[in-house]
């Protein structure tokens, strides 16, 4: 059988399909951005049909870019933006509402009342998560309560719930398979990460009918085959993982203490903690890193909602840049005597603060401040937030002490940001040659599960460093800047 594997990477702002050969080289790519809908302040939606069409079209583009046909592909791996919620009619396959995206804050009130009812302990004990609108549970309840007749239909088993992977799987298999994997399930707030099952107490608490839930499989489970009419031949679907979990695998973070951070729309740092759950005392998430062939590996995760999204805002909101890559040279030229600090809490603050109501702020503006200082502040905010996460990880897990950070995602193209990251973390930052690590991780699951790619040891040997960024900033300056950030965070939380 051929060693070609296709990864579908369905992200927050774009869908990508990438064909890899058996040397893990990219041989074909398709990519499409799609519309973001902001119907009200703090609400974020996607049109499910946009997502579906972008996936089908990018797969076709990637195949033709690679000069391959569907029958040349040994397996598909799906990876996706997590927590985003979809519900569709089982009979027609039609979604009952737009997808409610992970960034969406509309369920802040439901979360507050869960908190007031003292539900957090149960949720954290079973799921490793906290109460925040970020997760899927309250979003599903909102959809069932706000679409006419939805709750009754869901209880009767006529509606299906799914995160993006599940929706794509349903459509790709012509409505034959309703399933997800453990990494996507574990972000819903409905899944017991120790027992590896949906949990009745949580379903009751969040008012989600069991009849609408998908079957949960290991990441390397058998997810059926694509409908032959879509790409010209049926392709086996041999792997699924949420994007941050796939990136953890793509970065070959197989050993406890290994850490990766992905800088896309948001930033998600995942620290492998091995086969035991490690509870967090610093308000990080305990989550499933991956589950392969019946064995669960756990992780601590720090989730930041705005990273590259702040750069997008400079481009699309403020209009001070035409292209994201201009921000690096602007930051380089910014005035060193101005301490402009941005807290990009556009949709609240994630780890370790978890404040759904916080909103963005810029501090330290003077009459001399301009686009360059603001661009630097946007890039540096991502580094400051990562420093908060790393500090929390070191508190929670002794194996994180001398950790090197492996980075990936669109924003790591910025040398300025990576150097500032190493400076503020006071730790080395490693950027690999293959930056499509999310897609590569999904491809590895599928390739290995299909029997055409090597095991984790063979895969690890082939991980290649492109550049290491070593810390260069003087300790006094690092301390001064981190203090400026702490002050800015304190004022934002108090506002
Ligand atoms: N050179 C750059 N400097 C800073 N930010 C960048 C650069 N290139 C891309 N980005 C940011 O990276 C993000 C895109 O990364 P990507 O991994 O594709 O995101 P996602 O998977 O969330 O859709 C965008 O928010 C963009 O603003
Ligand atoms: O699409 P990304 O890369 O911003 O990732 C989104 C995350 O999975 C949300 O938890």
Automatic annotation (TrEMBL):
InterPro entries: ATPase_NBD (IPR043129), Carb_kinase_FGGY (IPR000577), Carb_kinase_FGGY_CS (IPR018483), FGGY_C (IPR018485), FGGY_N (IPR018484), Glycerol_kin (IPR005999). GO terms for biological process: glycerol catabolic process; glycerol-3-phosphate metabolic process. Inhibited by fructose 1,6-bisphosphate (FBP). ATP binds at residues 12-14, 265, 308, 312, 410. ADP binds at residues 12, 16, 265, 308, 410. Transmembrane segments: none annotated. SUPFAM superfamilies: Actin-like ATPase domain. One of its GO terms (molecular function) is glycerol kinase activity. This is Glycerol kinase. It comes from Fulvimarina pelagi HTCC2506.
